[in-house]
Design brief:
heterodimer; A: 893 residues; alpha+beta; 13-stranded mixed sheet; 6-stranded mixed β-barrel; 27 helices; 24 strands; 54% helix; B: 112 residues; Arc Repressor Mutant, subunit A; 3-stranded antiparallel sheet; 4 helices; 3 strands; 56% helix; disordered N terminus
Chain lengths: 893, 112
């Protein structure tokens, strides 16, 4: 047995290097002195003895350094092995304990896997979409530069001349470049295909920080009118053009014109559009000077700017605003009350999504907390059963700290294994998630389980283990352990403390579950509300497809119109097609707007500040019949409406009520150009359609025949086709019909109207589904928790119940008492939960698209549900309690 | 031979120390005296050079040390063989026997 002095000396050596040196000196000196003593005893005089001893001993100094080094090595090896020894011991013991109760272990690991897995999956989405920096060089310096108005209205694209002036005058930006996207038709080997093109100023690639991987970028000369050079994306080069490395210098046909390929961008590169971040451009064109010099009042260019390093967005914004003020003075016709806004690219792309994702992560977090509660509760119940074991350990000398360490190791074992299982679950869940995630979620392709996500999973596994393991570990090691060594008796104080703890846990779980369930219920209601709203059109059996009429052949609007009419006629001839029409924008998908002048009141344009005014749509064919939009007054369009002296237009009900309240709008005239006015006559009024999506109310809208004068006769039109049978079955024939009119003309973006409609709700559906799943799991967990607590309570008090029944208590009374137990916990939990709901109202608002988070009826239903769960889960144990035979209970003493 | 400790002697020193400790625990001075006695002063090494050997063998797990309070209430470090050390001693003894037999054969002297 090591003596006290030995322990003490070792401890001192462990803690201090100086002490180690001292001990070495001490040992050497002791030897030396003993040598001297012996020599003196044998007759030498002290001085001689010392000299002789020195000779015999050797040079101490040489040794000491070596000895010091070896002593240090010994100590570090010892501490390391001691730590690992104990750890290994704990782990082995823990594994044995867990294997002894396989059902218990399986349940715990299973629930942990669900909780950790869900959190991991949601986190990976959060990280991929929001947390990861944008894939550009120094992304924090990138901004969008917007056109807006001085009264705060924002954000629209810039005009060419404004951009040129801003770029020349700015000192806070390193560079600004602009882009405009469009569809173009690629004519390459076989069928024509629609590809996404982007016109950019030459410095765009440089600004973003990526150079072409083959060939060159654009130069200023490429901006000359008539220039026919392009840079391809890696995707287009690989997938459609065969990935031929000698493509530089060869030509491809776009919109039936030859273009020379001068460069190819690296894989994964894209210029981010502010309106659809996931839009990948296939081919880049230089923005030629003729485009750039288009009217100052024509706003169509998306501007991306890179700040000078160290310059803040506010500084840049202020500078651009002052430049805009100067432009305002110089060009009052176009720039009055107009200014510029600078917005960080990160904020634009991910601003809206960030909050929602964080809320989803919180919901998953709530669920994980509930999981922790369950596991802690289970562990507490196990702790009671293991009291004897703990007492034995304490009696053979295990300190309290050691016991706590042992129990925590077990908890961490459980949580880390649970975490590993959870990660596997997350992988599976990711596959499913990616398929249902809304396609307009930015940076979809960046979502995946990488090292950071794994690190996160490990982190929450450990945190979870500590969280649910702490309370049981602390209670198990405390208390009068020797009491429990006595035959069959559970330590009374520890037992009741544990029971209270478990009760508190369950009540907390109820509170969390209530908040979660309430949130889920609100979201479901909100989703159903929006989904069930009257849309104003009939999406059943309607097909949509887009056409892009580009190139010399379609330069003139009448040529485009002719094509449209011919194509629609061909399509109408297909058996099964009932109506065909065309429109410049799909319903619900945004539009173009303008000011409008009422003939009755020519001095006051219909405008309010500079906000959305009147939606402008160009239509052709039987659009309203195809889309199933009801006519409210007047008549539907006819083929010659556009060539009348005052072209005939259709307006919607909102516009009628706005311009001519309480009057008959039929026959009234309005213009949407100020000077000179182009008067149009209203011939019909149709029902409202929410052009800007289901979450914004319908705006005034007017529908012009395609060829009527004015602007907005876009080269991209959507075919709307109403069929008698399943529309998708006719796609092939429709495509052929279009090709019959122009063999180089593809149709693209083919979707049923049902799909167009449901795509609008994809985001809300996704959020609602996830939170619903979390809430469902939470409720299951909570009922399991209540069941466990109440069962345990019944088992512990079976003697008491037996006594009561022996003394005459009716079975129903016992049943009631036990149910009360569960009810009490549910009630307390519900109370706290309601408080939590009120506290979280502002936070949850953004997930509800405008619905009120504090909705009393929903809350009442939630509380009743929670209490119901509590009662139901207690039912089984309560029945068991009622069936306790007093004789058996009393006998088991 | 006294001054230099060639490689051969280093390994031999270990063997000597282990053997000395076979009969019981000793502190450094005790080991030096026991060696002196056993070899009848034929072997003289620098007494200080025992310590690197002792520390090295401690780190390898062949011997272990313990601090004790001497009669004069001084702290002294005493060394003893471990189980591993005992095993190693037997192995090294056998190796030594083989080695010396072989050398003797070559040198033509009879085994002592």
């Amino acid at each position: 047995m090591p003596s006290i002095s030995d322990r003490w000396m070792r401890l001192k050596a462990l803690l201090s290097r100086r002490e180690r040196e001292r001990q070495i000196e001490m040992e050497l000196k002791a030897h030396f002195d003993a040598l001297v003593r012996d020599l003196v005893e044998s007759g030498m005089n002290p001085v001689e003895a010392r000299e002789e001893a020195q000779k015999r001993f050797g040079d101490v100094r040489v040794f000491q350094k070596e000895l010091r080094k070896m002593e240090n090595q010994r100590i570090s090896a010892e501490t390391r092995s001691a730590f690992f020894d104990e750890l290994l011991q704990d782990v082995r013991y823990g594994v044995r304990q867990l294997l002894r109760k396989p059902a218990f272990t399986a349940i715990v690991i299973g629930t942990l896997a669900v909780g950790i897995g869900a959190n991991t999956a949601v986190f990976s989405v959060l990280k991929g979409v929001f947390l990861d920096p944008l894939p550009f060089e120094d992304p924090h310096e990138l901004t969008y530069v917007w056109h807006g108005s001085t009264d705060g209205g924002c954000c629209g694209p810039l005009s060419g001349p404004d951009f040129t002036d801003l770029r020349a005058a700015t000192e806070t930006f390193e560079d600004i470049a602009v882009m405009s996207g469009f569809s173009t038709n690629l004519n390459a080997d076989g069928e024509p295909a629609v590809v996404a093109g982007a016109r950019i100023t030459p410095s765009m690639f440089d600004l973003i920080g990526t150079a072409p991987v083959m060939g060159r970028s654009f130069v200023e000369d490429d901006q000359m009118p008539g220039s026919r050079v392009v840079v391809l994306s890696d995707g287009l080069w690989r997938n459609r053009l065969g990935g031929d490395p000698s493509i530089i210098g060869s030509t491809i046909r776009l919109d039936r014109e030859s273009h020379t390929v001068v460069g190819v961008m690296p894989p994964g590169f894209n210029v981010p559009s502010a309106w659809q971040f996931n839009q990948n451009w296939d081919v880049y064109f230089p923005l030629t000077t003729e485009y750039l010099e288009e009217g100052r009042g024509s706003h169509w260019l998306l501007a991306i700017g890179r700040l000078e390093s160290g310059v803040s967005i506010e500084t840049a914004d202020t500078e651009l605003k002052s430049i805009s003020a100067a432009l305002e003075e110089r060009y009052p016709d176009t720039n009055t009350e107009k200014t510029t806004y600078v917005q960080s690219m990160h904020e634009r792309v991910m601003g809206r999504v960030g909050t929602q994702l964080i809320l989803l992560l919180s919901a998953a977090g709530f669920m994980l907390l509930i999981v922790c509660g369950n596991v802690a509760s289970l562990l507490l119940s196990r702790a009671t059963a293991r009291q004897t074991e703990m007492a034995v350990r304490a009696s053979v000398g295990a300190g309290r700290g050691r016991i706590i360490r042992q129990l925590l190791t077990e908890s961490l074992l459980l949580s880390v294994i649970g975490g590993a299982a959870g990660i596997t679950l997350a992988f599976v869940a990711m596959v499913y998630l990616k398929s249902v995630v809304p396609s307009d979620l930015p940076r979809l392709t960046n979502i995946g389980i990488d090292l950071t996500v794994l690190g996160y999973a490990l982190g929450i596994s450990i945190a979870t283990g500590l969280l649910f393991g702490l309370a049981p570990a602390l209670t198990a090691s405390r208390g009068n352990l020797t009491e429990s060594l006595k035959e069959g008796k559970a330590a009374p104080h520890a037992g009741s403390r544990r029971a209270v703890l478990r009760g508190a846990l369950v009540a907390t779980q109820f509170a969390l579950a209530l908040v979660l369930a309430n949130g889920a219920a609100l979201m479901v209601r909100s989703y159903l509300n929006f989904r069930g709203m009257e849309q104003g059109f009939d999406p059943e059996n309607v097909l949509t497809a887009s056409l892009s009429l580009q190139g010399d052949r379609y330069e003139d609007v009448w040529d485009r119109d002719l094509f449209l009419r011919d194509a629609m006629e061909q399509i109408r001839a297909i058996p099964g097609v009932r109506y065909v029409g065309a429109k410049s924008r799909l319903p619900l998908n945004g539009g173009t707007n303008s000011q409008v002048w009422n003939e009755d009141d020519p001095d006051r344009p219909l405008s309010g500040g500079d906000g959305p005014l009147v939606e402008l749509s160009r239509i052709s064919g039987d659009y309203f019949d195809a889309a199933g939009i009801n006519l409210v007054a007047g008549r539907l369009p006819e083929p010659n409406d556009s060539i009348a002296a005052n072209p005939a237009t259709i307006i919607n009900r909102a516009m009628a009520e706005r311009l001519w309240p309480n009057e008959d709008p039929i026959g009234k005239r309005y213009s949407f150009r100020e000077n000179p006015p182009n008067w149009m006559t209203v011939v019909g009024v149709v029902e409202n359609v929410r052009q800007w999506g289901p979450y914004r109310s319908a705006l005034s809208e007017h529908y012009l025949p395609y060829t009527a004068p004015g602007w907005g006769q876009s080269s991209r039109m959507y075919l709307i086709i109403k069929t008698d049978i399943d529309p998708l079955s006719l796609v092939g024939q429709i495509r052929k019909a279009v090709l019959a009119v122009d063999p180089d003309q593809p149709i693209s973006d083919i979707r049923t109207m049902e799909r167009v409609l449901s795509d609008q709700f994809a985001g809300q559906k996704f959020n609602t589904m996830l939170v619903g799943i979390f809430a469902g799991i939470a409720l299951l967990l909570v009922s399991a928790g209540v069941y466990g607590v109440v069962s345990f309570f019944v088992a512990q008090t079976s003697r008491e119940i037996g006594i009561r029944m022996a003394l005459g208590a009716a079975q129903s009374k016992v049943l009631g008492l036990t149910l009360m137990r569960g009810l009490k916990l549910a009630a307390i939990g519900a109370g706290v939960g309601v408080g939590g709901i009120f506290a979280s109202t502002t936070v949850i608002r953004s997930l509800l698209y405008g619905a009120n988070p504090v909705d009393i009826p929903t809350m009442i239903v939630g509380v009743v549900a929670i209490v119901g769960v509590g009662v139901l889960a207690s039912l089984l144990p309560a029945q068991r309690a009622a069936r306790v035979s007093p004789v058996t209970a009393l006998r088991s003493d | 031979m006294s001054r230099d400790t060639p490689e051969l002697l280093k390994g031999t020193l270990d063997l000597l120390i282990l053997k000395t400790l076979e009969s019981g625990a000793l502190h450094g001075y005790g080991i030096a005296r026991a060696l002196e006695e056993k070899t009848g002063k034929a072997l003289q090494i620098e007494e200080g050079s025992l310590y690197p050997a002792l520390y090295r063998m401690t780190n390898r797990g062949w011997i272990d040390f313990e601090w004790e309070l001497s009669a004069a209430n001084r702290k002294k470090k005493s060394y003893r063989l471990t189980v591993r050390g005992k095993k190693l001693l037997r192995e090294k003894q056998a190796q030594w026997k083989e080695f010396t037999s072989a050398v003797s054969l070559v040198l033509g002297e009879g085994t002592a």
